[in-house]
């Protein structure tokens, strides 16, 4: 049987203009920092006018927020998949908390400049951070709603349970504290997180919140 040869496209499709702009902007931030990154420099490398950049992003702040939103999208999609899984509710909650922590930790290790954008946005209460936390909380709440009335668990108040989870795991799922713990080995942090989540879930399942 003859093997079919796949010919490489000599003219691969260019990424959409908005994605190209984001890639260039993120690279400039990695090399020069946020303050020295300008719309004019980004436009020059993209081969377009600065007015064209503003067609996609109305300000430098909007562009910077979209860089954070761009890398958070796969994480948020992953959280949705975890919440949709048929596993027991508390197993899913544990997986979701670990997924958040590991995604943040991976990003700070591999792309600290871009991670710092999100950490700053979180401290400032920027729209990109609020949207991300809203999606995170919605997935957690969805799982907690499943746990209501589950066999073996006393009735729980999802709102209070969510507050307990967020307050207790703050060190592991807030970008500023993940950044502050960077020098601590991730295995040690995950061991602490595993012990903490088990204690939290025991408290929630007992109904004594």
Helix content percent band: over 70%
Instruction: State the order of secondary-structure elements, H for helix, E for strand.
Output: HHHHHHHHHHH
- Give the count of helical stretches: 11
DSSP strand (E) fraction?
under 5%
What structural class do the secondary elements suggest? mainly alpha
What's the structural domain tally? 2
Work out the radius of gyration: 21 Å
Number of strands: 0
| CATH architecture field of the largest domain | Orthogonal Bundle
Largest sheet: none
CATH topology of the largest domain: Tetracycline Repressor, domain 2
Q: Note poorly predicted spans.
A: 1-12
What number is the mean pLDDT?
Answer: 89
Q: Categorize the overall geometry.
A: elongated
CATH hierarchy, class of the largest domain: Mainly Alpha
Span of the ends, CA to CA:
68 Å
Please give a structural write-up.
The chain has 209 residues and is mainly alpha-helical. Helix 5 runs antiparallel to helix 11. The chain folds into 2 domains: 14-58, Arc Repressor Mutant, subunit A (Orthogonal Bundle), CATH 1.10.10; 67-206, Tetracycline Repressor, domain 2 (Orthogonal Bundle), CATH 1.10.357. The chain has helices at residues 17-32, 39-46, 50-56, 60-84, 89-110, 112-124, 127-147, 158-168, 170-173, 175-180, 186-206.
List keywords for this structure.
Tetracycline Repressor, domain 2, disordered N terminus, 74% helix, 11 helices, Arc Repressor Mutant, subunit A, single chain, 0% strand, mainly alpha, 209 residues, 2 domains
């Amino acid at each position: 049987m003859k093997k079919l040869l796949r010919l490489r496209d000599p003219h691969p499709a260019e990424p959409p203009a908005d994605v190209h702009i984001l890639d260039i902007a993120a690279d400039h931030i990695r090399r020069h920092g946020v303050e020295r990154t300008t719309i004019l420099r980004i436009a020059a490398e993209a081969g377009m006018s600065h007015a064209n950049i503003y067609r996609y992003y109305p300000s430098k702040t909007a562009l910077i927020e979209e860089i954070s939103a761009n890398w958070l999208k796969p994480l948020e999609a992953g959280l949705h998949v975890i919440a949709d899984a048929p596993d027991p509710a508390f197993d899913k909650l544990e997986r979701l908390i670990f997924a958040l922590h590991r995604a943040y930790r991976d990003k700070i290790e591999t792309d600290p400049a871009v991670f710092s954008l999100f950490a700053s946005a979180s401290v400032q209460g920027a729209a990109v951070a609020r949207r991300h936390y809203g999606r995170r909380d919605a997935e957690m709440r969805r799982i907690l709603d499943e746990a209501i009335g589950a066999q073996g668990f006393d009735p729980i108040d999802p709102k209070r349970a969510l507050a307990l989870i967020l307050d207790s795991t703050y060190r592991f799922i807030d970008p500023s504290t993940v950044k502050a713990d960077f020098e601590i080995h991730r295995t040690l942090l995950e061991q602490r997180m595993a012990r903490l989540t088990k204690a939290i879930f025991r408290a929630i399942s007992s109904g004594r919140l």
